[in-house]
Amino acid sequence: MSHTRPAVVLLSGGLDSTTVLAIARRDGYEVNALSFSYGQRHDREIDAARRIASSYGVARHEAVTIDLRVFGGSALTSDIAVPKGRDVSDATDVPITYVPARNTIFLSYALAFAEVTHARDIFIGVNAVDYSGYPDCRPEYIHAFERMANLATRAGAEGNTITIRTPLIHLTKAQIIALGMSLGVDYSMTTSCYDPSATGEACGQCDACQLRLAGFSAAGATDPIAYARVGRA
Amino acid sequence: MSHTRPAVVLLSGGLDSTTVLAIARRDGYEVNALSFSYGQRHDREIDAARRIASSYGVARHEAVTIDLRVFGGSALTSDIAVPKGRDVSDATDVPITYVPARNTIFLSYALAFAEVTHARDIFIGVNAVDYSGYPDCRPEYIHAFERMANLATRAGAEGNTITIRTPLIHLTKAQIIALGMSLGVDYSMTTSCYDPSATGEACGQCDACQLRLAGFSAAGATDPIAYARVGRA
Q: Which domain does A77 fall in, by range?
């Protein structure tokens, strides 16, 4: 009979969160995976997350639907076109694909899930290197969330501490991929594209595709997923 | 043409949040009201919130559905019986009606709504006097959320500040009611009961009913809503 520590892992079905799941399993956590469905474009991500969760033998996997009514102004949740062929190498502004308060909402649900599963550790694949334009991917934001979380909950009120774990936060995409490959992650199961074709091929042009392809290239590896077209338009 | 400041007001349809809405309107805010639907028991609250929002001429009212899958262990969201006839006057433990991370999730959506409506003020009717058992009703929790919110968002990243306003936090229920009455709040529109009858009568016995009735009594006023039975069983 094993006595492993429960943890919550936010699992989008993408490259980063799948690597995080592999890290949590390597570190001996019993994983409660949490995914979010927030718009038609991302149903495919939930399917990927289900397959990935299953392959890692997670204890429990929940896919929570996020109600979009309060949102707007983001290409991921409205009719604004996903930018293609943008030069992401020097992007320092907040991208228009930013979803208002997204990580705050995700982490809030994770905090609830942690409370009901008695987990003290919440894993999230945020990255401050490639996504420097997103305010809620910065270490100071994560620390502030953690501090708030320890005041918000019964566990925190009783002196137990919630820890937000961000094992990828200071890694480049190439380092994330190299780490994942060393842990045996099968990246063919993952999906990153903001705007895939009807048949599921990645577009190869959006910010997420460009970052992913550049990461595999820098890691000296080949991305195993299918692309409709590679390179800037 | 008026140039009022936009604010987000969390509006449950209960006594406290309706008083908060009246305060925000008195203070000249253009209100974007946000309600949450999280379970059959509370659909009636949404109806009350809609009527109240309409009567206060709010600019926009959204009712967001909260997916309950990650929750459990709370009488408000599962099949655990609502406690009746409990002595609430000396309750210092965390009540079982506590919903995991509830205010954190509510405030996270409010933060998203604030961002898309360009509001810098978020009003929430938390109260540290009558709800001292809830960790996420304490001032230190609210301050930690505010700090996190200012690191989470584009507005925060650009130096604008989000303020979480809690005008009721240090008031007794009687003081809240007296304040509301001085602002002309029609409490017959509000609903507080955790377990109303099929015809909408408040039970008169749950914690929320007891606190409400005691508040009206201490304020020297009569609660205008209908009760099935008043007093402890």
A: 6-218
Q: Give which of A226, A224, A230, A195 is closest to A210, Cα–Cα.
A: A230
Note the maximum CA span of chain B.
55
* pLDDT computed for residue B69 by the predictor: 77
- pLDDT-based confidence at B74, cuts 50/70/90? very low
Cβ-contact B124, B106 below 8 angstroms: yes
Note whether residue A228 is domain-resident: no
List own/partner pairs for B81-88 with CB under 8 A and 24 or more apart: B82/B194, B82/B195, B82/B203, B82/B206, B83/B206, B83/B207, B84/B195, B84/B203, B84/B205, B84/B206, B84/B233, B85/B205, B85/B232, B85/B233, B86/B207, B86/B210, B87/B232, B88/B130, B88/B207, B88/B210, B88/B211
**Inter-chain CB proximity A67 and B66 less than 8 Å:** yes
Residue B65 belongs to a domain: yes
B150: CATH: 3.40.50.620
Tell me how many domains chain A contains.
1
Q: Judge whether A138 is closer than 8 Å to chain B, CB to CB.
A: yes
In angstroms, what CA-CA distances link B213 with B25, B42, B216? Answer: 26, 20, 5
Chain B neighbours among A 97-126 (CB < 8 Å)?
A: 98-105, 107-109, 111-113, 115-116
Q: What digits encode the pLDDT tens for the residues A20-43?
A: 999 999 999 999 999 998 765 567
pTM of the shown model: 0.88
